[in-house]
User: Fold this.
Amino acid sequence: MKTLLIIFLGTIVILFLGINKPEKKSLPYILILLLAALSMIPFDWYDAMTGNMAKWQTKYVSIKMLFWDIPALAFSAVLIIASMLVFILFSNQSRKGADLPGLMLFSLCGGLMMTSFTNLVMLFLGIEALSIPLYVLAGSRKTDLRSNEAGLKYFLMGAFSTAIFLLGCAFVYGGTGSLDIISIGRSAGMMGHIGVKSALLHSGIIILLASMLFKVAAFPFHFWSPDVYDGSPNRTTVFMATVVKIAAFAAFFRLFQYAFSDIKGWWSQSMAIAAAATILVGNIAAVRQKSFKRTLAYSSIAHAGYMLMAVLSAPEDGFWALLIYTLAYAASAVAVFYLLDRYGKESEGYSFESFGESGAGNRFASLVLIVSMFSMAGIPLTAGFAGKFMLFSSAFAQYNWLVGIALLGSAISIAYYFRIFKEVLFKPTAGLSAYKITWGEYAGLALALVLTLSIGLWPALITGIQTMVVK
Amino acid sequence: MKPDSIFNSLDISHYIYLSCVLFCIGMFGVLMRRNAIVLLMCIELMLNAVNLLFAAFSSYMGDASGQLFVFFIMVVAAAEAAVGLAILVMVYRNTKSTDVGLLNNLKG
Assistant:
């Protein structure tokens, strides 16, 4: 609760502070704001574990539509860390005014609502608060036709999927008579397979599933995301690929595990098939791309497929696996997009060939690139491996065929993740014009590197927290 | 007591059918039409079909939370339309057209 309030109120202040100043000047305020919000999470965590949170909420918050339990707090922390990385590494903007970072922070508020909702109204408001600033951000380069197209496509697809989501909510409401996810879960568990209400609930769940697959860009509904990622400005793309995707998965996980876990048989088969198809389609399409930016867009579709496995598995295991995976994915994806932004050439559409000529002079940046690529491909000793290992082992008991397909997909993914090494590291022209990296950006890259390596080398860090919480 | 009107004698299923038909008209409009303004109108039609369904369920079950949801949908639909029209104006300035079929720079 405090986190959300701090970010929301602080963003309004930052918008005023940043008027008529270069965007770089508002960066320290944004970082202080995010750090303040992040520092509230341990206190809330302590309250949630001792049960004070429930008491506090019944005392001060009369309508309980948001509830900060352990999963909500953990995903909030991941979202804030991911946005901090984005702000640090993509601070070098020449624009005046703090409106674009302000929109990103408002979007983050929507993401925090999506991690902690207990009512479908709040989930809807969270999704919209997350999406509407992003429509603007995707089209924020007003004279660039590609950015325009990305903005319009994202808007039309987002609004369309929101309408489908609302239809699903209406059917679930008609079937169970409630919008609260806990009471939906209770009446869904008691409901049989026969009757009008059961039919309404069943169709509502399938429509909700379709709309959530739309939001996370999973297989039958993934077609919009490569275009939108490709056309948007780089900072918006990385924000969409990390913060938005993580928030959507936190909401997806919460909705299906809290409300519909008792009737898993109704939706788990379709979701498993969607996950398998997403992994295969994302990875195979990524291999065939010429542009590195588009490859990363398709790889983020494949990552959505892996993350779907967490929604399918048992609540406890699935939550920890998803948490590690999202943290690992955020740290490595932001670093890789940063290097894409710096080394790639936009005029050549970020083609693979354009990388070797301009970049790779900086040793540290190359090291971060290698570690992040290893992490995204799931090579051991990186966080990506720990995340994939936990995801696959949590899903293995029920869906061993799906784990097989996921392993095949990871093997395919190595082909395109390692393709960039050839361009950056082994080109004879490499190392000519080293890009100068500022101290702030060094700090951001180091933070991403530390996150990736610490979880990878020392998974006990997370399992220790896990045993502490479970106790 | 409410006066006896035709609306009291209608079963809930009629409302469900009507909303589903309206929703499907909107959905086919989004999928078939090429004019961005028509697409916006079709999305509004889909949202209003859902509003009707929520209001019908809410009054059928005597539960107010569905009607609460309707207000939120209206507010958000207005915000969305504002942003959508702004994006559309921006696209029109660059292409002098509202045809979404012309936007095909992103491929691969």
Summary: Chain A has one domain: 2-470. Chain A has a mean pLDDT of 87. Chain A touches chain B through 45 residues (CB under 8 Å).
